[in-house]
Amino acid sequence: MTPTVKQKYRPSVALILIAVNLTILALPLGSVLFFRIYEGRLVHETEAELISQAAVIAAAYKQALDRRLNEGAETYGRALGAEATKEALKRYEPVMPTIDLASDDLLPPRPDPRTATSQASVESLDAGLDVSQLFFDARRTTLAGMVLLNHEGTVIGGNQSIGLSFAHVREVRRAMDGYYASVIRERISDEPPPSYASISRGTGIRIFVAFPIKAGKRLWGVVYMSRTPNNILKHLYAFRHRAALVALFVLAVTLLIAWVTTRTLRGPITALSNQAQGLAATKGGTLEPLAHYGTSELAALGQSFLDMADALEKRSTYIRDFATHVSHEFKTPLTSIRGSAELLGEHLEEMKPEERARFLGNIEKDAARLKALVDRLLELAKSDNLVPLFDDTVDAAAALETLTSGYSQVRIESQGPAMAQISEESLGIIASNLIENAVGAGASEVILTIVETSNTCEITFKDNGSGISPGNRDKIYEAFFTTKRESGGTGLGLGIVRSLVEAHGGTIALLDATDGAAFKITLPAASG
């Protein structure tokens, strides 16, 4: 029995290669995406820190200015719009980071301040000075820049631009309407960009936030802050242990890809190659299925190897047995011819005419048997190696009428044309062998019944001869098996018939019969 490859799900080679290529492609893309996501997180953290600082500065400025305004606090500043007022009157007004590093536009550096259209009040300047001192002390730790503006956008604290105006800056204008605003701007630096700037968008930017200072329904000022976000590589160095874990993960994925590729492709291919070399070295033999095939294509290839090895083994056994049978079949008549020839050569003059005739008759008979064996062997070899042309078609009914015209014992029963995929020559060899066997078995009548179905053409050969004994039914296709050896039987006829029928995609079956023998030939019907 041919070994079989265990049937289970196996990915295809194409799927493995696609998965490996996509994974390899995803590694650098994933690294870039990781940098972008992590960098965006750093920008969000920077913006959140600026918001927290601005909220504290805004609260300190409100207290400082409220002490100085006394009764004028309710009318100081500028009135907010309806929507901004609604937000300002809420008990809680949280401000969350809004910058999206991936989608927000990168604006040019912050514009320089311009001349203010009006002077800031003394109270706002004094309050701004107090808050600036607080900010300057904290800036040593926060590293943030701050400009404190009054409600008209005029600088009242934080740097050397006191009295100038930032009201023309986009984010400041938004804050003067009572809404928080943040933007990304190009960073101005006297130093050249670092070599790793190409992989990090955050190395050349600065975050600006404008935080409105609101007192009830009125705007008292704006806290305008800025800071460069943490550098991603410096941050990764600070968390180098975590970065090492990420690197180990990437290495593990790479090693996993190598292992999967080796297990699913290289290992089975190498094993199949070794099997093929072993099969070639031994010129046949039985193969065992591999423990692991990896992919569906390799499993199919492995099954083909097993089938090929089994076919080679069967063919080798057939050739070995066939050679033994041929040697035996040829040995008997050759021995007889040699013995008769030696006797004639040694005692030719002493022999009586009738003895001489008997020995010469034996030689002639054995020579005729050898010729019959050679002819049958040639027919068998031709049928075993026949490459049928499936465009060969024949009307079996008409062809058999012609081919069997020389046999008085044959009667054909058909219901009209019956087209079969077989050549007329092959059909003639099949018919003549079966009819000769029937006649040799003493049949006085051989009935050929031809039936055409939608897919097949069935031809039944039924005779009234001596038939086939139950003990011989399983041997009739064996080479050189015959019960008519004395009358010249070679035992190759049915083997030739079966080879020709199977070569044309058909089957032959020995049917049960009460008298005589019956064979059913089934051939593919001719298309069209």
Topology-level CATH name of the domain at 13-238: Beta-Lactamase
Provide the helix percentage. Answer: 40-55%
Q: What sequence of helices (H) and strands (E) makes up the elements? A: HEHEEHEEEHEEEHHHHEHEEHEEHEE
Tell me the span between the first and last alpha carbons.
39 Å
Flag low-confidence runs. Answer: 193-202
Looking at the overall shape, the CATH architecture of the domain at 13-238 is 2-Layer Sandwich
Strand coverage percent: 15-25%
Indicate the radius of gyration in whole angstroms: 52 Å
Mean pLDDT: 78
Classified in CATH, the superfamily of the domain at 13-238 is: PAS domain
Specify the structural class. alpha+beta
Q: Sketch the major β-sheet.
A: 7 strands, mixed
CATH class of the domain at 13-238: Alpha Beta
Shape: rod-shaped
| Count of distinct strands | 16
Number of helices, where a helix is a run of at least 4 consecutive DSSP H or I residues: 11
Explain briefly what this protein structure is.
The protein is of the alpha+beta class and 528 residues long. Among the domains are: 13-238, PAS domain (Beta-Lactamase, 2-Layer Sandwich); 388-524, Heat Shock Protein 90, CATH 3.30.565.10. The chain has helices at residues 13-69, 82-88, 122-142, 170-176, 232-238, 240-282, 296-347, 353-384, 396-403, 424-440, 493-503, and strands at 78-79, 106-107, 114-115, 145-150, 155-157, 164-165, 181-186, 205-215, 218-227, 394-395, 410-414, 419-420, 446-452, 456-463, 507-511, 518-524.
